[in-house]
Amino acid sequence: MSKPLRLFIALELPARVLGALETLQGDLRTQVPERAARWVRPAGIHLTLKFLGDVPAGQVDAITAGIREAAKPHAPFALQAEGLGVFPNPRRARVLWVGVGGEVEALRDLHASVEGQIVPLGYPAEERAFRGHLTLARVARNASRTEQEALGELAARCDLGLLASWQVDSVSLMRSQLKPGGAVYTRVAEAALTGQE
Q1: What is the mean pLDDT of residues 11-35?
Q2: Beta bridge partners of 9
Q3: What pLDDT is attached to residue 1?
Q4: Model confidence, pTM
Q5: Hey, how many other C-beta atoms are within 10 angstroms of the C-beta on 188?
Q6: In sequence order, what DSSP letters do the residues of 98-119 get, joined into one string?
Q7: Predicted pLDDT at 115
Q8: Chosen CATH of 5-192 out of 3.90.1140.10, 3.40.50.2000, 3.40.50.720, 3.40.50.1000
Q9: DSSP per residue, 119-140
Q10: What pairs with residue 166 in β-bridges?
Q11: 196 vs 51: CA distance, rounded Å
Q12: ∠ CA(51), CA(53), CA(58), 5° rounding?
């Protein structure tokens, strides 16, 4: 019996957007205590639509078919990386992220279509409202309350503006493999946004 695969559904980013995010990470690193945050490798930054977790290998084809069905009616659309924020709130920062602007209604519609296809396969809908974002760093488990607040303050005072824009023309099923140096992501399948019912 093959081992389950740790999978998620996401929008991959073009190299120039990843480059802009990497430059931003470099700038922000100088303003954050070194031990306070674990920075996401730039090549691994993506816009998650749905995290699936451990998936039996035999279910990959059904998920791929669901993603293709979800993507089909949607035409390509434009997004922007803009603004800096933290989850869950500035006083208890756990995740530092760049926000997503542009055609966010199209993004929400695509997310809803993905949920509509994947939830019936046994992957429950997220209880929180979907909020597209690009994770730059996660606060270290041993970070002090002061360091968490400092990260929240950094996000609040940083006037990032528009960092980069890109065209979304496909959805990817991604595999996450946890390695000693951090997670490694590989594309398992891709579904084009064709705008055809």
Answers
A1: 93
A2: 50, 173
A3: 59
A4: 0.93
A5: 18
A6: EEEEESHHHHHHHHHHHHHHHG
A7: 97
A8: 3.90.1140.10
A9: GGGT-PPPSSPP--EEEEEEE-
A10: 79
A11: 26
A12: 115
